[in-house]
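Action item from last week, closing it out:
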Amino acid sequence: MSNKPEPTGPYAVGTRTFTVYNTRKEAFDPKGEAMRHVPARIYYPVDKGAVEGLAKAHTLSRSEAKGIRKAFKIPLDYDKMESAGENISECYVDAPFIEGAKFPLIVFNHGLFSYIEGNSFLLIELASQGYVVLSVGHPREGASTDFDDGTYELADTSITYKMYKPFLPAVIALMKITKKKGTFEEQAEAFYRCQDKYCEFHVRRVEEWIKDTGFALDHFRKEYASIVDLSKGIGASGHSLGGAVAYALCQTDSVYSCGLNIDGGLFGRYDGMVMDRPFMQLSCKDNENVVTRAYIRHSAPAYKVLFRDMKHVSFSDMKYAIKSAAMTGKLDNALAHEYTCKCHLEFFDAYLKKTKNKPELKSDDVITVSEFAPDIVPSES
């Protein structure tokens, strides 16, 4: 993964990991015997003068490279990356916390078949700008999920055929929705009709990923309370299915004060519910119509940011490994990263740090920005 972006904030970035073991029975174990473990990686601000001589984290583990090769058919050569010095992440392992300093917390969930560091360049940038980020892993649903005892679990590739039932009619129906004309309400209704008919798997996985996130957050709050300021709530973000989880967390859990979804279809059941927290939706053109619920039934500000010449995978670190424009789009990788970070920082600075009244984003050659005033007054929610 060459041409990696450097963090631009005033802080260096530290990183630590933990695993919460035996949270519950693993649904993907055919024997019903295995237990589900939930790993997490923390990114946090560090004084730049405190990292001299410390080791940097790897961008990928060997098992993650193996999982990416298997899931995405990309010929990643782990040993070549290591020998060329390309497998170094711009964060420092177990760097010391800044004594007495507390920062806002953002909880992040990766996408299906991604991995816990699959959006690391974004998360490192957020930490360099004064946020603590808790990135949650999802075993058997990530390309590879690494645990603190040295073991790992590769993705269960049978999931591909479990995602939609029946598979081919579901894919055709979803493709039709991506091209459907109409109001936000009409597009949302079409999406949820399709979900209820074909996508029960996604609904269940959002519910299970919320449980994963809860276990990770509970452990984090017990062990790392000294480095976070929770007085303004917690921010939620995620990519793909992880973005759907961010939306669900903001709909259902009062500890989350605002959220952002990176190009994830809004799977879940929200009949009669109102989004009462600020929410921002980042999308590429392909997925514009599967997220329109984010712009209706809300009593807090809602934002739509549409990226031009962008594909789904380019919101993640995989854009640096994939050379096909058909998969990543034509938007320059540096711009894709810059604007994804800018959207997060503008949004969370406004609604989590609360250092500004609203995000300062404008439409230009890369993004089109729309803001939607609440369509339901708070007393109705």
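Closing note: The chain has ten helices and 13 strands.
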